[in-house]
């Protein structure tokens, strides 16, 4: 599977926001969105990355940027992961592997650790094919500034 390329239309998907409302990625047009894929809830690297986004959420929100995490784990697994670590952004379950397949991030049995920055126009603006969980949230904020999506 190939990763989406910069300039490609981001495949739409449905998710439940932190306020419990059903939304679609396309509902967020007009603002940048960070869609980060990760292998598994409650594993060391994935927890480090998720907590980094949690701790940086004020900086993302103040710049109008939405963050969405996606893995092939179940809704129940995501619920426990969110509660255990106080995650303040949506986690999208994809056990049928439809979203991870559409974005070209399906590994052997789980999602690869890949992040897409989706521009306000709904197109891929940047792709992180290699991610260091510890530094990634700050790295993405800097890239959003470089792209002119966040000041």
List the helices and strands and how they pair.
Elements: E1 14-16, E2 22-24, E3 33-37, H1 44-62, E4 66-71, H2 75-85, E5 91-93, H3 98-102, E6 114-118, E7 124-128, H4 136-146
Parallel strand pairs: 3-4, 4-5
Antiparallel strand pairs: 1-2, 3-6, 6-7
Helix pairs in contact: 1-4
Protein name: thioredoxin-dependent peroxiredoxin
Family: Belongs to the peroxiredoxin family. BCP/PrxQ subfamily.
GO molecular function, one term: thioredoxin peroxidase activity
Structure description:
The protein is α/β, with parallel strands linked by helices and 151 residues long. It has one domain: Glutaredoxin, CATH 3.40.30.10. The protein has four helices and seven strands; from the N terminus they run E-E-E-H-E-H-E-H-E-E-H. The strands form two sheets. Strands 5-4-3-6-7 form a five-stranded mixed beta sheet. Strand 1 (14-16) and strand 2 (22-24) form a beta hairpin. The radius of gyration is 14 Å and the shape is globular.
